[in-house]
Each structure stands twice: as structure tokens, then as C-alpha cells.
Amino acid sequence: MNAADEKIDKSQNTVQIGEKQLAVSKKGYLINFDDWDEDFARTMSERDHLKLTECHWEAINFLRDFYREYQIPPHPRVVIKAIGEKISSWGCTRKDLENAFPLGGCKQACRLAGLPFFYCHSC
To answer: Which are the contacts of 80, defined by CB distance < 8 A and separation ≥ 6?
Structure first.
């Protein structure tokens, strides 16, 4: 899939990826958690001018798994404790997490992971 196949329609609060049109909030948060796929994360990260690395995917997948189980996003300390060593050879601090997601740290990670906005304000 290339960038020409992806478009964000702010007037309709949708994002189109190939043939799929997904409902998002005005801030780009996915409305339905189950609509998420990796193409959604890639599209939104391109919009943010962020190239997703293995470190980003570790955080995104952890957030999705945690939310799926508990219906809330984890506190940043939980993320750091759970995947810190994987995403940084020197350990991961909250500042490292914020640097990996420069447009809001945990909030940006939550958005890319497809978590609803009203849960992510606490990240």
C-alpha cells in the first residue's frame, strides 16, 4: 500500500486506507478499537512524519494487548517496566518513551495503537 492509497478526510472524521474507510475522532483517534490494523498505524504515523521502527511496534502491540485485556491503557510506568529493555538497550524511561513518540508520548502511541481518545488522556 502506498501513500496515494491512503487519505485522511478531516471533514468527515474518517481515514481511508485502500478500500477501507475508518471512523476517527477529530484528533485522529480510532473510534472502534476492533477496526485497527497495522496499515492504520502506518497511515497515522506517516501523517505524523514518524517512521515506525521495531521499538514503536513493541510499544503499539503492548498497548493493544493491555487494552484488550483491561479495557484501559497502561500507565507509562507499566509500559516502561514491561517493554523498556526491549526498546532501549540502556533501559527505557518515560522521557525515552516520549522521544520515541515525539507528538505526545503515550498519547501518540495510544492513537497509533487504535485506542479510543477518551481513555488515552490519562497516559
So the answer is: 92, 93, 94, 96, 97
Q: How far apart are CA 68 and CA 38, in angstroms?
A: 16
Report pLDDT digits (tens) over 28-68: 899 999 999 999 999 999 999 999 988 889 889 999 999 99
Q: Are 80 and 88 within 8 A, CB to CB? A: no
Q: Summarize pLDDT for 86-104 with one digit per residue, the tens.
A: 766 645 666 767 788 888 7
Which residues lie below 8 Å from residue 43, measured CB to CB, with a gap of 6+?
6, 8, 15, 17
pTM: 0.81
Q: Give yes or no for a contact between 5 and 17, defined as CB atoms under 8 angstroms apart.
A: yes
Cell of 119: 481513555
- Report whether 117 contacts 27 (CB < 8 A): yes
Q: What is the CA radius of gyration of the chain?
A: 14
Q: Which domains does the chain have, with CATH numbers?
A: 54-120 (1.10.10.370)
Report pLDDT for 3: 44
